[in-house]
Automatic annotation (TrEMBL):
Organism: Oleiagrimonas soli
One annotated GO molecular function: DNA-binding transcription repressor activity
Coiled coil: 10-37
Family from the record: Belongs to the histone-like protein H-NS family.
Protein name according to UniProt: DNA-binding protein H-NS
Amino acid sequence: MAVDLKKLNQTQLNDLISKAESRKQELEKEKLVKVREKVTKLLKDEGFTFEEVFGTRGAGRRTRRSTGKVPPKYSNPDDPSQTWSGRGKRPRWFNAALKAGKKEKDLLIK
């Protein structure tokens, strides 16, 4: 089934590429099903469950770790109610203080 690519026009090439990508995805899904079947059979033969081997979260699934609230590290000397933990984008008051000649260590909460 050799296809002479030089004889195909733009539309035919795009159609061929689309069909090839679709077939590639089908083959990957088929391979994934076969691998799952092999893993399930192996686990069953060895007397284990998926959860015992990989944990309750499942393989490949990652959850975003919550770090919780971080205590403030810096405060605005002009308005102590304005604080910043040192994470994320710098607040305007912090940048203004640095431009005014203060150093980061001057803004630390003591």
